[in-house]
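Section 5.1 Outputs to date
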Amino acid sequence: MSHGRGRFVGRSAELATLQEGFAGTEDRRSRVVLVTGDTGVGKSRLVAEFLAGLVPDSRDGTEHDDSLLLRGGCLPRHGELLPYAPLWEAVARYGQAPAEPEAEPAVRALARHLRSGGEEPGFPPGEESVPRVVSTAQALGDLCVGRRLVLVLEDLHWSDPSTQALLTHLVRTGRPEGALVIGTYRDDEPSSAPSACSWPAELELLGAHRVRLAGLAADAAGVLVRSLLGPDAAEAHVESVVARAGGNPLALEQLCLSTSGPHRPSTPLTEILTARVNALDTQVRAVVHAIAVSGGQMSHALLSLVTGVEERTLSAVLHRAGRHHLIRPDPGSGDYALRHPLMGEVVYGTMPAGDRQRQHRALATTLVSHQQLSPQHGFGLWAQVAHHFDAAQEREAALDAHLRAGLAAHEVSAVSEARHHFARAENLWSDLTTADTSFPVDRDSLRMHLAEVSYLDGDATAAVTWIRGVLDVVDAESSPVRAAVLFERLGRYLWAAGHSSDEMLDACREAVRHAPSWAPRERAQALASMGQALMLATRFTEADAYCRDALRVAESVGNHRVLAHAATTLGVIEALSGHHTSGIARLRSAARTAVAHGLPEDRLRAQGNLGVALALGGRLREAAEVLLPTLDQARSWGMEDSHGAFLLSNTLGVLFDLGHWDEVQARLADARVGAGYLRASAALDIVAARISAARGDFDVSESALQHVRGALEEGGDSWANAQLLVARTELATWRGDHMQTRRCTLQFLELHSGTTPDNEMRAEAVAPLLRAEAEHHQFRRAAGLTARREDKEAVARLVDHTVSLESRRVSAVAEAHLASARAELSRIHGDGSPSLWRSVAERYRQLDNPVNVAYARWREAEVLLATGSGGARAARCVSEALVISDRLRLTPMLEKLHALSGSHTLQLLVSRPARVAVSKPLNNAAPPVEVLSRRQREVLRMLAHGATNRQIADALFISEKTVAIHVSRVLAKLGAANRGQAAAMAHQQGWVSGADEVPWPSVPAHRRAEPGRELCV
């Protein structure tokens, strides 16, 4: 409860948590603490008590003169979405009474940053023009220079997407250093968003600390009631109030303020508050109503204008309202607020409908004519005005305000908020019989904005619908420039939504046809999009020509977006054509252009494709180092559902090849893909299906691939279909389904019946297809059957593709696949050489691809044992394959290796880790590391290197008690009897290695225990 009159009771442990978090800021640590609980449970009171203890500190009586306190809250939604609302309020409060004069320049810089949409010149080039999450975090970091920061964000259950993204970014990055961020969040707030309730839990998983406040225990509630009623209160009365309030401090306070004796009949809290308001005089009630309509807080000047009460008279009215415990002055901003948000909801809900509309209309018109009275500017102001005109049912005025709010939000890349306002404006426009011609944009432009923000918000299908609606009413011959823009956007949206390459090409072709030479910016964009469409259709020569034409036109007018866009496409073409060095250099240049000119969409595209080019060049680890931070950028910029989905699919492809399958599965579990991004969703399902197949979960893999086939039936491009074909072939091969593998072979031969430039895709597919043919041939030989004519023809055609690819310039990855295909061909002919498979293993080892290394070593061992040419060499091959397969839980391959190493002689020769792998039952493997949380994995990693609880606590900035809890949970989840056994399991399963860099602070070498040695703690 906010600043209640009673004693602060029953929250000593929760208060200690906040104090511990603040103490950590002395060492420049950062901590995000979420205080959650039901309405009125005492979240704000807990924070208020903590803040009161900072000056002076209750333990040593000294002042914390090196700290800065900023406090702000979110506004009730009521359909309005205001980005960074708590920061606006915090800055406004600080401006009323600066508590730390030396911090004033940094606070003013934060205020300028919020007003300018993040374009403050003090930020690094390129960062300030992208969506504001990163630059806003930097602005907060400037507040911590030379001081500690306590940032309180209240009522986060009403938070906007931008505030949520900022808080997520702070938790992920552990910044700003030296800051304690405290958020209050109402658990019982109803929300239309399914993810709203899980957001605090998601932040907790990322590293935030959550303090969940329950109702007060009966004894603590009794102490609070007695402090409110006085020492003479009858015990029966105290017990009655405690029973009726259910441990809720706000209910306890209001019941005590509203009752005069123990025999008053039981009244619900809402009726109590309503009765108290109705008992007020007319002027006080009007003031309370106005504050409730505004969202719970108003300035003196704005309140006077809205209610029509003169300022001198208003002071007396506010004083009377304060005596009734209904409002309180805010000491930071000087505004007046209701004592608790619940009170505002009750007052608002019980107002007559006509009174509510009049109050909303008065507040909206006052804000329009006196914009300086609003603490928000631009988008924030118009979001407020739109909300109030909506509630007043002033449709034309609301339409105008929503358009202005949407345009301002789009300008600062608050995509979700912009989409909300544009969608509301479109609905209002549909209801109007006549519309004012003075609106900031026309109807078609509104729909174009709706299409773009839907696309950026992860709903490409909706974007296609909106843009086609505008195309239906545009006369392309009389408005060729607009038609060119519309067709260019349609092409982009169609591809993202999973439509066929032909549809994208048709749209881009129309864009080029309508783009006149006298509109060079639009023509350059159309040419660049046509080049991209041709590249995606693997028509590289034509794509190259269009991109170079686009660069020429763009350079003439300084169109940096097209320069980055076309250069990215050219870089991809070069990389896919085997010119990796030049392709990588061009992609790096495109990324620099996008950064320098604040082009987030093109920056993500350039960096994402750079990762792919590096991977094709055999530089998988470098690719991961580029893709993982880029993926985080997309998430922090609010593009996780759209561009982030494609980035994620590329990233997981690299991690898949690197054998980081547990990380792949963890990221898949948290993946968010917009509803209209079917192609990206399909790519993620394919990766998941390939892992499931390799681990023996055949039914799971089959289900995922069936889903993908259905999604791609009408629009899958060659890349998606090639990946699907590889996954289907791998699954059928592990299952021994020769009929299905033959269908895959025939489909591949049909897709690539002529000469095609998609060399990388063909190389990736031909190796598993020849493996499937080898399995089929061996099956027939074992059954005493000869090869059929159709079998020989299929193999011959696959060999033709292999020979064709070997004569072309391809990537290091493709070369490894082709070497594997040649080795599989030797299995078909029955003349395999161990050196072939040894060469394949070395190629994949250089690419850091452990799964294919294990497979090649298995096949090498097979040939060695079949020819009797070396038991020791075969044992080394089996040993390496067993260790890798056991670590990655490749159950089908383990079964084959178990059978291969079944002889007593070979078992004696394999390495000790391999013997352990062989001896373990396949259906009782050790628990996978993903059963542990991220923090528990960090604890296990340090535990496995011999760290004590104290060392782990120091390294992870947590208490020893918390470490002890983590250790006990790790032991329970792993089924380990003690720390030594858990450490041994970690090393045995490959969850940690001797090469790991252990982040404990300055631990002397003689104090580090050997891995697996149990420590006394």
